[in-house]
Amino acid sequence: MKTLLANGPSNLYATEMEQFGRLAGHWATRITYYPTDGSPARHVSGEWEFGYALEGRAVLDVWRWPGREELLASGRAPDQECGLCVRIWDPRLQLWRFTFHGTAHGDLVHMYARQIDDEIVMERAAGGDLVRWTFTDITAAAFHWRNERSTDGGHTWRLDQEADARRREATQEPG
Amino acid sequence: MTAAVELIAAPWNLGLRPPAPGREPGTWRAPQALLSAGLEARLRPARTVELDRPPYDFDPQPATRIRNGVTIREQTLRLGEAVRAALAASRFPVVLGGDCSILLGCLLGARSQGRCGLVHLDGHSDFRHPGNYDPGSTLGSVAGMDLALATGRGELLLTHWPEVGRPLVADEDVIQIGDREHEEIPPVTRFTAQEIQQIGIARLGERVISRLEQRGLDRVWLHLDLDVLDERVLPAVDSPGRPGLDFSQLSELVSTLAGTGRVAGLDVAVYDPELDPDGAYAAPIVDCLASALAPLATMEATRA
Q1: Residue span of the signal peptide, if any (chain B) (predicted)?
Q2: Is residue B303 one of the residues assigned to a domain?
Q3: Smallest Cβ distance to A116: which of B70, B130, B160?
């Protein structure tokens, strides 16, 4: 599968590709879940790797938890996630088309995304709700991600999940 | 008025629900019906641009609860570019729909030249958004949501746009004219069909112009959903009703507004030739538009 990954963005939409492409590399994450039943928030470590793909026309990422420090010697359990995200800039829509393919629970999620001011906002309609995944506070060394849901058409949002990401040093990346 | 007309045909029906299972709404036929009824000869446009007819999808599209939402975004960008090009050529775009979803592309194109208000002539407020109905139970139809979407309410897919961002138009820069509804009132300046019956077209025109002056709006887009007409005058629309304007009142109002020089362009929506099997209504619609826009039809200087 040497044709899957790419070293950099395509010249076709280089400016747009950079929106997600700047996240290329390995990140350690601290993921927090906020249960809807009011029970206490729970935390888990994770890893997130981004990179260009498909001759630089797509940005992929792999979302995993737990992180390597908390991973048991026996390996990742079947219900622990190792999922693939695919992002392709669609010039006809002037939006990113996004899909998440989860291996733990068979999740398949479609979303649309745009950079809005300093954030990258991804959104999908799920039944009567709107779900947003937002990348924010993006620097070379860190970013924040949050997963929110609105049941009133976007007037108010409930935080379901968030992640703080810190870039790993190159020497920390798995071989 | 200083610009010649450019006609832009937007033959689509994407924002309407199917009138029967497996049957597409017929508004996509309206541009050709109006052109065949002599609109081109009457308005003498500098140019006529005909956009392609997009495919109508009966099934939900991915990650949206808006009927044909993805296709409407693509068509909105195309129509926006057509309107932008017409304005850049110093022409007066007249967009022939189609259903009310064409409004988004019209505003997007108009915004390419800066702030632009909206005069929304419509027998309905078209203000449905996920905050006032349950999109989980039914797909939303943009023809009933266009004012909500234009003012930034609803899915990102149809509320965030290149260059402009969100919204296409601020609530304060919208004037809604002619709706007969009592629920989900949009927070905009509004003249209902019943109020228009009481005050008449002349006073309505004065009040609209006064509001434009108050807001400092030198440019507005004029959206003309033909269901603002009384159903006894024009029944060949998706959701006819009464009371409403007659053709002469509509012509007088459009003429008054266009005469201010503040109208950047207009769109005409929701005439359905399939609900007009004898073709009886295309001619009066053409007469109405031609009469209202007569000063533009005499413009020769900027023709290509």
Answers
A1: none
A2: no
A3: B160
Assess contact for B268 and B290: CB atoms under 8 A: no
The answer to whether residue B302 sits within a structural domain is no
Q: Domain containing A65: what range?
A: 14-172
Q: Going by DSSP bridges, is the β-strand pair A158-167/B5-10 parallel, antiparallel, or unpaired?
A: unpaired
Chain B positions in Cβ-Cβ contact with residue A110 (cut-off 8 Å): 62-63
Question: Looking at chain B, which residue has its C-alpha nearest residue A128?
Answer: B136
Q: Other CB atoms closer than 10 Å to residue B216's CB: what's the count?
A: 9
Classify residue B127: in a domain, yes or no. Answer: yes
- A/B interface, count of CB pairs below 8 Å: 66
Chain B residues inside the 8 Å CB shell of A111: 63
The CATH number of whichever domain residue B152 belongs to comes to 3.40.800.10
ipTM: 0.92
Mean pLDDT of chain B: 95
To 10 degrees, the CA torsion angle through A54, A60, A64, A69? 90
B268, part of any domain: yes
Range of the domain at B196: 5-297
Q: What is the pLDDT of residue B304?
A: 40
User: How many domains does the structure of chain B reveal?
Assistant: 1
Residues 7-66 of B with CB under 8 A from A: 62-66
Do the domain assignments include residue A8? no
Q: Which amino acid is located at B74 in the chain? A: E
User: Do B64 and A116 make contact, defined as CB atoms within 8 angstroms?
Assistant: no
pLDDT digits (tens, 9 = 90+) for B21-57: 999 999 999 999 999 999 999 999 999 999 999 999 9
The DSSP result for B74-139, as a single string, is HHHHHHHHHHHHHHHTT-EEEEEESSTTHHHHHHHHHGGGS--EEEEE-SS-----TTTS-TTTS-
Cross-chain Cβ contact A128/B63 below 8 Å: no
Domain count, chain A: 1
In a domain, A7, yes or no: no
Mean pLDDT of B130-136: 88
Please answer yes or no on whether B62 and A130 come within 8 Å at the CB atom. no
- Chain A residue numbers with beta carbons less than 8 Å from the beta carbon of B166 are 116
Note whether A92 contacts B: Cβ–Cβ < 8 A: yes
Cα A70–chain centre separation: 20
Quick check: A44 contacting B, CB < 8 Å? no
Q: Is the pLDDT of residue A56 over 70?
A: yes
